[in-house]
Prior knowledge:
8 helices, iron, about 20% helix, five-stranded parallel sheet, about 25% strand, 25 strands, 4 iron, 4 sulfur cluster binding, oxidoreductase, FAD/NAD(P)-binding domain, about 425 residues, FAD/NAD-bd_sf, 3 domains, alpha/beta
Amino acid sequence: MTVDKQAPASGSILVVGGGISGLTTALEAAEVGYEVFLVEKNPYLGGRVAQLNQYFPKLCPPTCGLEINFRRIKDNPNVKVLTLAEIEKVDGEPGNYEATIRLNPRYVNANCTCCGECASACQTEVPNDFNFGMDKIKGAYLPHEMAFPSRYVLSPRIIGTEDAKRCKEACKYDAIDLDMEPRTISLNVGSVVWATGWEPYDATRIDNLGFGRYQNIVTNMMVERLAAPNGPTQGKILRPSDDKAPESVVFVQCAGSRDENHLPYCSYICCMASLKQATYIRAQYPDAKIYIFYIDLRAPGQRYEKFYNKIKEDENVFFVKGKVAEVSEDPTTKKITVTAENTITGEKIHQEADLVVLATGMQPTAANTKLPANLRFSTDGFIVNDYDNGGMFGAGCANKPSDVVSANQNATGMALKAIQTLKK
Length: 424
């Protein structure tokens, strides 16, 4: 591993995480004249928003918001983007931080034209993490159709194999470099914004809800990918067991949330995500029956409340106030039966469905991956901002559960805080 020492970048800002919050922070600071280093662990920018089919408030596809931000980055020389990059350590004090960053090899250089010849030549398939493992992709791949930077990646799994050689031989532009190695760089910056985002809570840990045991139980983020035109089923929401159209769907709210054994807090947007996904199903299957089991429903703000009221008018959408206790599967039909007690009527309900969707909560990435810096965290892993001392700040869902609008507003504020640190 080689180590490069970068010249001190006085007055620079480091933004960790290239999701919607990180993009907003970086651009807000860069467009008023500050040098920004944007570091992202994935080979592309966009974060969780890139995985959505649509997002509030206008039910836009990801291209709607990300495309313009990518254009702004291309047009702004103040933003330096580092993908496949991980922060190893941040030391120092406000106005003078030393950040050590590991750059992992992409095995594809800037000559790449996205012609796809390397993927055609590659024979190995690997799980597609972008689609939560619901399909496979070639070992030479473009992460998704609007990936930024628009450049292919070779999976480390094929390096050293005949497939890697085939990919290199197929490339007409000398874009594949199989000799790339990890390297480490050091940056001197004045402030750091941690926009490290969130992860869907691991549904396999919720024993009573059957995820991982029964094929036709999926998570809310998996439904986003199923509904997306560039998803594993080209936008059709189908039962995983037999690829058939579901005639009935159950949404299980607070799957692991508001539970001392899992996530003790409310994730803010899960209720609205399920209501949004109900519209996906209703659009594809007008006769399908949808059952939403909930503890409480949260529609934060007038616009969301209006959306909720519109869904309630749908005669094929049924709301059941009750926490799901258990699920079971018919081994012949693969249908799932959800068992819950209706807390309003006291009736015990056994609802059968073709597909069950678990509304798993947001867990901050920092809860599972320790951030290598002197930061304060809540007991749930969210960054607690220390505005008095300043210097390093958590933005977006690294700070608290948020929807896209709230995350953007928060990120704009953190860009200002980062700038104020440089001014002190």
